[in-house]
């Protein structure tokens, strides 16, 4: 999945780098590909595109994938390899911290669905199969391996200075590649037991090793259930994503000889809420709704609880005239 994430307020959560395990060859195998689709996104604010994989949950087009597959997307397209049909899709909801997203295909019906298993009784040494859009080629491929660890915790980081921990993961030596993200990890009966999480441009795995990881399917489905019930929280966002229209990086400024934390504006979307408020590159955002921007994720945390049309008060300092504060109306932007 080749992409450069930019002009978004959020650090991304995403996948680990994995190596090729020589013992297992990648092949094509139609029987394990039922209910698996290709996900392609356009990243208009980043002048780029991305590709991943999805798991069909319902015949009318509810599709499970990794959040980082659709992060920053301005449009989402889903292709069913078996029928070659293409659908546009909207993001119903997502969890940045769990790296899970739910899509809904527009106008879909009669889709073949994946067989869902359980992740409650997995064991080390258990044989598994991973299916995905390896390399973002648009074609599904299959690789096999075993479970090499359970309840793993890893740290993933992005190219904007953000880092987050993913907990309770399934570790596998099945070879994962960019583009496999969002695809199923299957047990011996071809039932989905996890969502593969694979490497992508701009994201890195801070621990060593070459094994891959998957999000347990029980955890992912719990988030799907929360999204469908309409229960948003500090970790689960539902509906449209609020958009301030800036690219930021962790920074700060000196005030009376004391250093104050903040996030430096490195880019502003013309005509966006931040631009209308008067923010420009080089300014440092110090508060959102009165809360200090004390970490690389502080602005993210505030905006994830908001929706397009909501108002927030933003405080920032510039390089010449000092501190400014304005009430801005958030626009609709790409999922984060």
Walk me through this protein's architecture.
The protein is mainly beta and 336 residues long. It has two domains: 30-237, Thrombin, subunit H (Beta Barrel), CATH 2.40.10.120; 240-333, PDZ domain (Pdz3 Domain). Helix content is 8%, strand content 43%. The chain has four helices and 22 strands. The strands form four sheets. Strands 1-2-3-6-5-4 form a six-stranded antiparallel beta barrel. Residues 1-28 and 200-204 have low confidence and may be disordered.
Written as H for each helix and E for each strand, in order along the chain, the element string is: EEEHEEEEEEEEEEHEEEEHEEHEEE
Low-confidence sequence ranges? 1-28, 200-204
- Counting copies of identical and different chains, the oligomeric state is single chain
CATH class category of the largest domain: Mainly Beta
CATH architecture of the largest domain: Beta Barrel
Count the beta strands: 22
Helix content: under 10%
- Overall body shape: elongated
CATH third-level topology of the largest domain: Thrombin, subunit H
The number of helical runs is: 4
**Mind summarizing the main beta sheet?**
6 strands, antiparallel, barrel
Integer count of domains: 2
From the alpha-carbon coordinates, what is the Rg to the nearest angstrom? 20 Å
Q: Strands of the biggest beta sheet: in what spatial order?
A: 1-2-3-6-5-4
Strand content: 35-45%
Spatial gap, N to C terminus: 16 Å
Structural class: mainly beta
Average pLDDT figure: 82
């Amino acid at each position: 999945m080749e992409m450069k994430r930019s002009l978004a307020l959020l650090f991304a959560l995403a996948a680990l780098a994995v190596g090729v395990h020589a013992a297992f060859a990648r092949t094509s195998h139609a029987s394990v590909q039922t209910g698996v689709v290709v996900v392609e996104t356009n990243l208009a604010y980043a002048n780029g595109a991305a590709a991943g994989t999805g798991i069909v949950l319902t015949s009318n087009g509810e599709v499970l994938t990794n959040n980082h597959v659709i992060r920053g997307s301005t449009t989402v397209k889903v292709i069913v390899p078996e029928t070659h049909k293409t659908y546009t899709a909207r993001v119903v909801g997502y969890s940045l911290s769990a790296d899970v997203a739910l899509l809904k295909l527009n106008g879909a019906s009669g889709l073949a669905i994946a067989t869902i298993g359980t992740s409650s009784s997995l064991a080390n040494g258990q044989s598994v199969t991973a299916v995905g859009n390896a390399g973002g080629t648009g074609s599904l491929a299959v690789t096999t391996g075993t479970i090499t660890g359970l309840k793993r915790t890893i740290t993933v980081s992005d190219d904007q200075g953000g880092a987050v921990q993913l907990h309770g993961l399934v570790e596998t030596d099945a070879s994962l590649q960019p583009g496999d993200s969002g695809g199923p990890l299957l047990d011996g009966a071809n039932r989905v037991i996890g969502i593969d999480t694979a490497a992508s441009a701009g994201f890195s795995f801070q621990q060593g090793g070459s094994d891959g990881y998957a999000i347990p399917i029980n955890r992912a489905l719990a988030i799907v259930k929360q999204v469908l019930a309409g229960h948003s929280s500090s970790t689960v966002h539902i509906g449209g994503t609020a958009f301030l229209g800036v690219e930021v990086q962790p920074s700060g400024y000196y005030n009376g000889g004391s250093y104050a934390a903040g996030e430096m504006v490195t880019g502003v979307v013309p005509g966006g809420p931040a631009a209308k408020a008067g923010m420009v590159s080089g300014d440092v955002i110090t508060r959102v709704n009165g809360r200090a921007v004390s970490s690389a994720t502080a602005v993210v945390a505030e905006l994830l609880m908001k929706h397009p049309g909501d108002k927030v008060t933003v405080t920032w300092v510039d390089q010449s005239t000092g501190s400014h504060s304005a009430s801005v109306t958030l626009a609709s932007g790409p999922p984060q």
